[in-house]
User: Fold these one by one.
Assistant:
Number 1:
Amino acid sequence: MWTKNAIRTIALLGLLIGHQATALGIDPPSEPIPVGPAVLDYSRSVSVPRVTAPGTFVITERVRNVGGASANNVVITQTLPTGWTVDGSSTLRVSFDTIAVGQTATHASTVSISAASSVGRFPNEAMLTATGLDTLEATVPIDVTKPAVLGATTLPETGSPLAMLFVMGGAAITGIGVTLRRT
């Protein structure tokens, strides 16, 4: 595996060779010559840190090639928790054919969370693979909550509705009829 320092050293040697070629009267190439393998920097972010189920959030994948060669067949996959979907699928899958040297590729996916989803903190981890490169992982946690139901209370029964009695200004009103009394 090439380290970043090794790649920088090789790139510096390539720059020196280009300057020597100019001193000798040889035209150097108009674009830098890629040196070393592809090196990918992979990260992900979410649009909100907390989502209430049912609901949605957007997850953005960002892959930057900081190496000396193109990265090919770059694929990001994540098996989603129960109740989560992207375009109706329980697997998030993002593909980039080629990421050139110095290029950054991004992709945003809308994740839907059903009311049946579990609540809690989810690590939200995905894997990135590319031809000839080690597998990379990136994690961005998200909290899933459910809405609170307020005011739903069953009151205890306090008596028969026919036995209700209201006294108002010398008149007694019962559930059966009205009785007037003089006082």
Number 2:
Amino acid sequence: MRNTLCVAALCLGSALSWAAPTYQLIDLTPAEAYGAKAMGINASGQVVMTADGGPSSLGNQVLLWTAGQLQRVWTLPPDGRPAATLPSLADSGDVLFVDFTPGAATKRLNVWLAASQTTVQPPFTAAAKDVASAMMGPDGRIVATVITGYTTKTVYPILLPPQTYTSPVTACLYTAPNGASATASSTCVKAGVTGLNGNGKFGTTYSGFLYTSPGLGTFGSTTVKNLGRINGGNGGATTALSSDGKATGWVSTKSSGNAAYGHAFLHNGSTLADLGTLGGASSTGNGVNKAGTVVGYGANAAGAFRAFVSTNGAAMRDLNELVDPAALKGITLVNALGINDAGWIVAEGLDSQSRSHAILLKPVP
């Protein structure tokens, strides 16, 4: 039985230590992996992740976790040296990733199709030479930023439709943020696509007069919406969108535009709310759901980055404090990378040897 014979201060501390955890922690890291990172989660709770086998026979892999089962989407021999990056997934279970050999000239888009259990490589325009970044939306729509020439390094986004991934691509998604005419060699390079949802919306950076801020675009539109600024700050980007258009990312609080002074935000469709930090200088939102719950990472008072959660614009909470310490097993949650509408969160944890762990957090009923 719990001892209640204590002074008030000690009772308060005891009560805090006995507080029920808010989230159940599940470590998805394969036992034989040197490290793993959970990169995204879809509506049904499937998680896409990468795993590094190190010297083991696991190799470098892209994995899909579904209801306790891990499936290898892509793998390479341990000493093969090519690597995979930027994995994301659709609600259908299709997985997008970019594979490349470090030091090589080009990277390739790959889509693993859940229905056929096969991988296809979507085409580019004839001018495209390389992939700078790519992401897949919940509906399977893909946005990739490509490099068209190694001399000029011209970068512009392309759009691939869902499910087929073989139709002709769209060379430019939108015109200049301020409505000027667009060309693939100049205007589109001003703002890359940094977030994506399944309803035709994408996150980007708005370019205003002498400043930039988080932006929101719509496929087929000729302008980008300015989501707002904080304290006249210069800088920001929208990194994630919910299905109903809520947005998060980072917005600068100073005129320097430096992300080191950026704060995570929640934009609910009409107003931008500063979510602050965990006591340090900066924070960034990486995921948001329809309930307005934002997850990401923030600096604490000691300057260390920790995973956070914030609901409906409330002060952010350190996710490490919302999990049973016994379940953490010495792991520190340093970043939260996504959340679905059920409130399931994918996060990155670091153990005492600085090895990455792929973590799933599920709300305790």
Number 3:
Amino acid sequence: MDVCFPRISGYEPEAYLPILFEEMKRILFVLHSDSDGSPLASDFMRFQGIELETVTPFSESAIPKDLSNFDAIVTVGNTETARDDDFVEKEVELLRQALHTNVPVLGIALGARILAQACYASWCKNEVRRTGWTRVLLTQEGRRDILFYGLPSAMDFFHVHGETLEAPHGALLLARSEECPVQAFRYANAYGLSFHMDVTPVMMRKWAGTTEERERSLRYGEVMAADVAAHTRAIYGNFLWLIDICRSEGYTKRKSRNRLV
């Protein structure tokens, strides 16, 4: 399988298996409601030795003004929950800073919509609110991309949103579904995913409400539990791999500059 390494040139993939750094990775985790954030993701990251700093609009934490102390950003949220517009505006500016400085970003659901906004893309309201499980298909670009490395080309993921994203101009479409033409995109080293790959039964109960789909979603969630955990580990693990590549590229550039002095 060919793997696409965004914005990385002149390197062989084997050179990054593995890359080891003495410094701990530090990731900014942005949550938008008290129901956001999956223990499947946070537990995996902490198990990998990642230092997580969480910011939310409903606590005393604030969006940082710069990214000098962070190796990446993960922004997650349910697009149906209430949002703090001032908080989101500051987040958009931070994501644009990440795009300009080659800091990896992973935006999930609402995080993907805010990332699209940072890339000057638009979205539209769906006629029908989508809640439940959907078969997501990787595109040719998606099958080659580092984020989905080692994953099947067709996977079932949970959705809860009433909006459809437009892929930013210049972005690569990585995944689609029958109901949603943009399930995943990549712009430079920033990824937007319309689905919740790390959903838990608690999250589904909160988000599915009292719709007829609720019980079917919960039952299918039980069937999918092992796949959900495996997909979460794979996608977040690949994202950590990308962070290592970007850090190595930055280290190589700094070393080259030092040799020129």
